[in-house]
Structure formats: structure tokens, C-alpha cells
């Protein structure tokens, strides 16, 4: 259809040039501008360059075009900028006090317009050409733009044939637009640049270990959440309910990894509020019914988010303190971005059945000179998310799990994923704040990311699974709970005496020398309610003659299921990587079940009785062992 001819026939009086449209803005007007990549660049430039525009108050989120003008003193005398989110190009102006920032949740901005708390005289937006029924589309910018259009006294729209048509709340009839300016120009493209691909890779791999098949995802603003999507390419049946979509989703959709089949809200469809990406992304969403674009008051409403089971938020932060407080909008007193969609989605995920939140960030800034995990937030930093909001924190050194953890546990979890050069400092500061025990040992200063590969899953009967991973210092409380869950006989078989106390000092000794090479401990975790608890521990320690001394303990209700055999195979794999030639073990001669595990795995094991009622068992790796069912090689 020739949309120009259609418009000239249907509503010729509304078709004007940019200067005429802008002339309808009067002195002192409050003007809303379309968001992000959907902003009407031609109209904005016309307005900014018109000397008749005086004392104009501009409201916008994620500005791009106005960045061209904020260094011009004449522009700043004529326009006052009120931003809901500080875009990268506006940070310098924000630091210098040239623009004003309105901290508010995205879900609440439409209410501010509707209630006239923020009154709007004019909305300047960009739309697609009308269809044969006269309906245009807000395209890539529905978010708060829908509300801006609905509550402004005058609506000026730039009609751009490059704006894609999207399904949902962005449909607007030409009858509801006062002035139409036909202008063809490329949409703003957003191509986030990844500064350190190795940091992204490591963070992405850790996030992939947390995300489960069938989860519904929120992907926050920023280059990092978008970049790590590529590492979810082994997942199944993911859904998307998010504020902004970008190019990182396309590959997952085309591979049928994102299917949206298990979503509760709009199943089968990606739910979003805006799009920031490449021309290829805009072409992909154009008329594509898999995408539904709704306003921010719906998409970002925590009660709507929570309707999705297993809802997971992936967002980023500027810094996180050792207690779990998150700052995402300022560097100290300098406003850097905005609250945006993060708080809405973290709260929605917390109310979702099976939902949780993940905050991702590099461990350092400014070439590793500044830690982004800090003893306390910088002076003036805003607390976007409280200590009770965040479930997981992920850096390139792994992930920390905070939900339900005490301050002591949080300190240890977060120190583990801080940059190694800052770990001792963080522990010492935590001691000064009385967050942890005065005798607390710091986590290893090694880069232990390699131990993340030691992650296994064993399938049991009735759909039960056991997860295995390395033991961390932050597992102290779970380790202690595990010990006290054991019967006296089990404890006696493991330690050769009836140990009564498993104090903080005893636990620290257990893992103080664990370097994950010469000494290693693997724990088995079983689901119990909404968390996982330790039900088995297997360890080896450097012995003599290139052997490692190995020991196990499995909780009674999980004995006889092949778990000890499975863990033995895990430990062998790790020991071989570290140049051990075999295992040795000392066990009581009446501990027949453990002796059976060793003999089954190593039929040629040497068993030598010793005084005191125990036996010494030596096992060689060069003898091919009998592999237990559900071997680690098959379950990584």
C-alpha cells in the first residue's frame, strides 16, 4: 500500500513538515520524547535547533539524539532535561550537573503520567506507516511511550517506513495523532561492545549452571546480560518475559531453545516492552507474532512477572557490598544509569513459584585496580536492591548464593567470587565490621574457576537427582549441619572415633588445606524443599608414593544407592589430572560396605590388615577400573 497517498487522502490536514509540527510546542511546555532506539531523531533535531523553543522541559528515558546538544550552552539555556535513565552518552552531562535524573521504577512511570504527577503537554514519538485501516505501530518503543502518547495533550508522530510493526500495546490509529511528519531515516542501532570476552565467557558459563530448562528469563539493560545469552545454547524450553530485547535472543529462538512453551503469561510468545538492537533484529521482529510488545506498566509489574513460574532475572550492577546490598544507578554520588527494570523484576521473581534473581558483574573495574565487591557501598551510592532482594551474584570467578544466608555466610560467598587480589582485604574489613569470626581464614587467593568444571549430576530413582561439586569455605554451615545429621556409627566409621563436636575451628581445619589439586573435597547435594543440602562428602589428600588418601561419608538415607562409587570415580578423574597414580584408604575391617565400593571399582586392590582392627587398601589407576552406572563422564 502507498501509505503516503493513503494519508493524503484520509487526513491531509495532519501531514506537516517537522518545523510546522515543532512550532506547536509553546514556551514552558512539558515534552515527552519516545524511548531509546525508537526515538524520532529528525523531530528531536528540529526541536533542538529551533531558537523559538524556550523554557522547554523534556522527559525521556535512554536518550541518544540529545547527546549531540548537551555541550551547547545555548541549548541548555532553552531546554531542561529530565531523564528516567541516564544513557551512556549522557553520563558526562549527568556528572557535570547538566541534566536531571528521576529515580523511579519503570513500572511506575506510566502512573506518574496518568496521575498528572508528571503532566505532559506534547508527546513526540516515532511510528510505522499506517496499515489500510489507519493503524500505526510504536514498533520498538512501547514501554513508557504508550503512556506518554495516551496522556499528552498533543501527539506529534514521525512516520518512518523503517519502523517495524510489532504486536501488542503499540498499535495507535492516525485519529489519535495530531500531527504526522513523514520522514525516512535509519533507526538507532544498539550494538553493545564486550570489553573482555574471557570475563563474559566465564560469567556466562556460571550463569548457564544456574539456569534450568523451562525457566522464563528477564534480561536486564547492559552489554553483559545480553552477551552471556550465547552460553545458554544447551538449555531447553526457555521463555522470555523482559523489558528490553536485543540481538542475543535471535540465535536462541532460531535454535528452539527459547520456545516460551512453559510460560504462564502469554505462553508461546516473547513478552517485551522495547527493542534495542541491530537492523537485523528490527527486521526479525517486524510483523513477527512470536513477539508481544506491552507497556511498561504491564511488562514490569511485579505481580504480572510473578505469574510466571520459575521466573529468573539476569541483571547487572555497579557494585555490591559484602552484606548483599546492590548499587546499579550511581558511582558514589555520580549518577551513571538508572533504577530501570531491575527492582521490578527482582521483586517479581521473588514472588514467582520457583523464581530467583541473578546479578552479574565483572569482579573489578579500571584495569583490576578497583574491586566491585566492596566492604560497604561507596559514599552516596544508591541502594537499588536491599540485602533481602538478591539470590545469586556472579562474577568471572564463580557464583555466590545469598538467599537465606547470614551475614557471615554472605561475606564468605562474596569473597570467594571477588578478584583474588582483593580477597584478603575484604576478609580483614569484614572482621573490622564484626561480620565474621576474628580467626576466620580467607578464601584461597588462587584463581579457582577451573573447579567449576567439577560439576556432576547423578540420576536416582523416582526422578531424584544428586548434584556434585567442590566444597567451598562458604559451605561451613551446611557442612556442620551435615555432620550433625549423621548417626554415631557413621561418624565412627569415618573418623575412627565418636566425634561429638564439629565446631567452627574443626570445620576450618577440614577445608583450610584444600587447594583443589593436591587436596580435594567433593560434596553431594540433594534437593530438600526450596534448597539443596549436603548428603555426602568425598575427599582425597596427598599421600605417599604418588598416591592420594581417599575417604567418604554418605548420609544413611542415601547409602546403598551407588553414590560412594560415583564419587570415587569423580575423585579419580580429578586425581589423574593432578598426576596421582592411585589411591590409598584406611578403613575399619568391619566397614564392609566401603571395602566393597573399593573392590568393585578396583578389583586388583591390595588389602592389608593392620593392628587396631583397620585395613589399608591401595589402588592403582593404571588398572582399568569397573565403571559404575551413571559415571561422571556421562553426567557432566
Write structural notes for this entry.
The longest helix is centred in the C-terminal third of the chain and has 15 residues. α15 packs antiparallel against α16 and α20 crosses α21. Helix content is 27%, strand content 24%. The strands form nine sheets. It has an eight-stranded mixed β-sheet with strand order 28-29-30-31-32-33-35-34, with helices on both faces. The protein has a seven-stranded parallel β-sheet with strand order 4-3-2-1-5-7-10. It has 21 helices and 35 strands. The radius of gyration is 30 Å and the shape is elongated. α20 links the parallel β32 and β33. The protein is α/β, with parallel strands linked by helices. The protein has three domains: 180 residues, Glutaconate Coenzyme A-transferase; 236 residues, Glutaconate Coenzyme A-transferase (3-Layer(aba) Sandwich), CATH 3.40.1080.20; 181 residues, Aminopeptidase (3-Layer(aba) Sandwich), CATH 3.40.630.30. The C terminus is likely disordered.
Give a concise summary.
This protein has 21 helices and 35 strands.
* CATH superfamily placement of the largest domain: Acetyl-CoA hydrolase/transferase C-terminal domain
Question: Number of helical segments?
Answer: 21
Give the class-level CATH name of the largest domain. Alpha Beta
Overall geometric form? elongated
Strand arrangement across the biggest beta sheet: 28-29-30-31-32-33-35-34
CATH fold group of the largest domain:
Glutaconate Coenzyme A-transferase
What would CATH call the architecture of the largest domain? 3-Layer(aba) Sandwich
Amino acid at each position: 500500500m502507498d501509505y503516503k497517498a493513503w494519508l493524503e487522502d484520509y487526513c491531509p490536514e495532519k501531514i506537516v513538515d517537522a518545523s510546522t509540527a515543532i512550532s506547536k510546542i509553546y514556551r514552558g511546555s512539558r515534552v515527552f520524547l519516545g524511548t531509546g532506539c525508537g526515538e524520532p531523531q529528525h523531530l528531536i533535531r528540529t526541536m533542538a535547533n529551533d531558537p523559538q523553543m524556550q523554557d522547554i522541559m523534556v522527559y525521556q528515558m535512554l536518550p541518544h539524539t540529545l547527546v549531540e546538544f548537551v555541550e551547547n550552552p545555548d541549548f541548555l539555556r532553552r531546554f531542561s532535561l529530565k531523564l528516567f535513565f541516564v544513557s551512556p552518552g549522557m553520563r558526562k552531562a549527568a556528572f557535570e550537573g547538566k541534566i536531571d535524573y528521576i529515580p523511579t521504577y519503570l513500572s511506575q512511570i506510566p502512573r506518574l503520567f496518568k496521575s498528572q504527577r508528571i503532566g505532559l503537554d506534547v508527546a513526540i514519538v516515532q511510528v510505522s506507516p499506517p496499515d489500510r485501516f489507519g493503524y500505526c505501530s510504536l514498533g520498538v518503543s512501547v514501554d513508557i511511550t504508550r503512556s506518554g502518547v495516551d496522556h499528552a495533550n498533543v501527539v506529534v508522530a514521525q512516520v518512518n517506513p523503517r519502523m517495524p510493526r510489532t504486536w501488542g500495546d503499540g498499535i495507535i490509529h492516525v485519529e489519535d495523532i495530531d500531527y504526522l511528519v513523514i520522514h525516512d531515516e535509519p533507526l538507532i542501532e544498539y550494538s553493545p561492545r564486550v570489553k573482555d570476552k574471557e570475563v563474559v565467557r566465564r560469567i556466562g558459563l556460571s550463569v548457564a549452571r544456574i539456569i534450568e530448562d523451562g525457566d522464563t528469563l528477564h534480561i536486564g539493560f547492559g552489554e553483559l546480560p545480553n552477551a552471556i545469552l550465547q552460553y545458554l545454547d544447551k538449555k531447553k524450553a526457555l521463555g522470555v518475559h523482559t523489558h528490553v530485547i536485543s540481538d542475543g535472543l535471535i540465535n536462541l529462538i532460531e535454535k528452539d531453545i527459547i520456545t516460551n512453551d512453559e510460560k504462564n503469561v502469554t505462553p508461546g510468545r516473547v513478552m517485551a516492552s522495547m527493542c534495542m538492537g541491530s537492523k537485523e533484529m528490527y527486521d526479525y521482529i517486524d510483523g513477527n507474532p512470536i513477539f508481544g510488545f506491552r507497556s511498561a506498566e504491564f511488562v514490569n509489574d511485579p505481580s504480572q512477572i510473578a505469574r510466571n513460574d520459575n521466573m529468573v532475572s539476569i541483571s547487572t550492577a555497579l557494585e555490591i557490598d559484602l552484606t548483599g546490598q546492590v548499587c546499579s544507578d550511581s558511582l558514589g554520588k555520580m549518577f551513571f544509569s538508572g533504577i530501570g527494570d531491575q527492582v521490578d523484576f527482582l521483586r517479581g521473581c521473588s514472588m514467582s513459584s520457583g523464581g530467583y534473581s541473578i546479578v552479574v558483574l565483572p569482579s573489578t573495574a579500571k584495569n583490576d585496580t578497583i574491586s566491585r565487591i566492596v566492604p560497604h557501598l561507596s559514599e552516596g551510592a544508591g541502594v537499588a536492591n536491599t540485602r533481602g532482594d538478591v539470590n545469586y551474584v556472579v562474577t568471572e570467578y564463580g557464583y555466590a548464593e545469598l538467599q537465606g544466608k547470614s551475614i557471615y555466610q554472605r561475606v564468605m560467598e562474596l569473597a570467594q567470587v571477588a578478584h583474588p587480589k582483593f580477597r584478603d582485604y575484604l576478609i580483614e574489613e569484614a572482621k573490622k565490621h564484626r561480620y565474621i569470626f576474628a580467626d576466620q581464614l580467607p578464601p584461597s587467593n588462587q584463581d579457582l574457576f577451573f573447579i567449576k568444571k567439577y560439576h556432576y549430576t547423578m540420576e536416582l530413582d523416582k526422578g531424584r537427582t544428586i548434584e556434585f561439586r567442590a566444597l567451598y569455605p562458604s559451605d561451613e554451615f551446611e557442612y556442620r549441619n551435615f555432620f550433625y545429621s549423621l548417626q554415631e556409627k557413621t561418624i565412627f566409621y569415618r573418623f575412627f572415633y565418636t566425634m561429638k563436636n564439629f565446631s567452627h575451628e574443626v570445620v576450618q581445619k577440614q577445608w583450610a588445606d584444600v587447594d583443589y589439586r593436591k587436596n580435594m573435597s567433593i560434596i553431594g547435594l540433594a534437593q530438600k524443599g526450596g534448597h539443596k543440602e549436603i548428603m555426602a562428602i568425598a575427599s582425597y589428600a596427598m599421600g605417599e608414593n604418588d598416591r592420594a588418601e581417599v575417604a567418604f561419608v554418605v548420609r544413611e538415607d542415601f547409602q546403598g544407592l551407588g553414590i560412594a562409587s560415583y564419587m570415587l570415580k569423580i575423585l579419580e578423574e580429578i586425581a589423574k589430572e593432578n598426576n596421582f597414580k592411585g589411591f590409598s584408604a584406611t578403613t575399619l575391617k568391619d566397614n564392609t560396605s566401603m571395602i566393597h565400593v573399593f573392590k568393585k571399582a578396583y578389583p586388583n586392590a591390595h588389602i592389608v590388615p593392620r593392628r587396631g582392627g583397620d585395613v589399608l587398601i591401595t589402588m592403582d589407576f593404571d588398572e582399568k577400573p569397573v565403571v559404575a552406572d551413571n559415571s561422571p563422564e556421562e553426567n557432566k
